[in-house]
Specification:
By secondary structure, this protein is of the alpha+beta class. It contains eleven helices and 14 strands. Helix 2 runs antiparallel to helix 11.
Length: 398
């Protein structure tokens, strides 16, 4: 992974998606394969990702164009282009921060093919809390490898470094930590659990028993990343790269950062524990194309081109609504009404981050949608996207 320098925001005179729609860029070139009927399509590495016109994948071009125009015209107002200004919102940065962010960008993927792109989908940008779903995935890989035997088992049975030794903390299970219901008490990387912005703004009650209260808390998500590193005894970016990003053909431009306070030594090796967001710097820096590949892996139930990378069991666990917070799973945002039954995995879920950075997966319509710096109403945008799908048939049945 390369440490990519941030460029100043750049806008194209004509949105790429609209240009593609106007010129029919997605049409098959001579000798190019038609959309596959035998099985799902998987893109090759890098730029080896086929485009299709909307009509070829059962989408109405005019309706899709309206969705793209809506995304392009709604820049996010919550995040300044000069990202150094974020300290005014979240507090002093203790990890790296890009100098600037890009403008609105994104892509629509159906049946695995790129149908539309806008902005600069290859620009590397901070993703804020969309990073959390990547943290979840590294814990899922540990679960698949047998490092986590049971998500309902207390973490203290495995992690013996004292962070789960108190009477309160030793009750916390893996599921509690992943669902943000742990109520863990302590200090990590010089930050107490009460330091989180949302805790300070929204907390109305005292500390509750693990599993009884949901709180969005970046200190505890950073703890999740840390215990994941303790399980693997490797930096999580190495694990993600080897197990997920390289196999799905992601670029070499993404990088994942921690803080200058989160360096540890494990088995004699110095490594950095990464953060699960960008409140105090750090986090995942990635482009829209690589985000789209990650979303497509989850749309395809953890299989990439015939090889299983993460188990269906884990994906089901990660996308099953939390009892006390049905819109949340294992560090994924969920659409609970899309579940096929009580206690069942949902059909629509998303990695979401501050500033409108989103990877939205829609199993019902075989769609993945990525947005960067989107500032409009998500429900309106989703309505436009789904409304453009005229052929409701998906390539895979669940």
């Amino acid at each position: 992974m390369s440490q990519t320098s941030m460029r100043a925001p750049r806008r194209s005179p004509l949105p790429a998606a609209l240009l593609a729609l106007a010129l029919g860029v997605g049409a098959c070139a001579p000798g190019e394969a038609r959309p596959q009927a035998e099985g799902p399509y998987y893109p090759g590495p890098g730029d080896a990702w086929q485009h299709r016109t909307p009509a070829q994948v059962g989408i109405d071009a005019a309706r899709l164009q309206k969705a793209v125009e809506y995304a392009e015209s709604h820049d996010n107002k919550d995040v300044p282009y000069d990202l150094l200004g974020l300290e005014d919102t979240f507090g002093l940065a203790v990890g790296p921060v890009p100098e600037s962010r890009g403008g609105p960008a994104g892509m629509v993927i159906r049946h695995g093919y790129i149908v539309a792109e806008w902005g600069d989908p290859k620009r590397v940008d901070l993703t804020f809390s969309a990073t959390k779903s990547f943290v979840s995935t590294t814990l899922g890989l540990a679960y698949d490898a047998g490092m986590i035997k049971d998500v309902n088992e207390p973490i203290a049975n495995t992690i013996k470094n004292g962070m789960f030794a108190s009477e309160h903390n030793r009750k916390i299970t893996w599921q509690n930590l992943l669902q943000q219901t742990s109520e863990w008490e302590g200090t990590l990387w010089q930050m107490p659990d009460t330091f989180d912005l949302y805790h300070r703004r929204n907390r109305k009650v005292g500390r509750q028993e693990p599993g009884k209260y949901w709180e969005y808390n970046d200190v505890r998500v950073n703890l999740t990343a840390y215990v994941g590193m303790l399980l693997w005894k490797r930096p999580l970016p190495e694990v993600l790269k080897e197990k997920i990003m390289d196999p799905i053909g992601a670029s070499e431009t993404w990088s994942w950062h921690g803080y200058n306070t989160s360096n540890v030594v494990l088995d004699g090796k110095r490594m950095n524990s990464v953060s699960g967001g960008g409140h105090w710097g750090g986090g995942l820096w990635i482009n829209a194309r690589d985000m789209g590949r990650f979303g497509l892996l989850f749309l395809r139930d953890g299989v990439w081109n015939g090889k299983r990378l993460i188990s269906s069991k884990w994906i089901d666990l990660a996308t099953t609504p939390t009892d006390i917070r049905p819109v949340y799973g294992y560090l994924w945002w969920l659409t609970p009404e899309s579940a096929k039954g009580p206690g069942q995995p949902v059909e629509q879920f998303a990695a979401r981050g501050h500033g409108g950075n989103t990877i939205w997966v829609d199993r019902t319509h075989d769609l993945v949608v990525v947005t960067r710096w989107f500032g409009g109403d998500w429900k309106e945008f989703e309505k436009l996207i789904v409304g453009s799908v005229v052929d409701k048939t998906a390539t895979l049945d669940r």
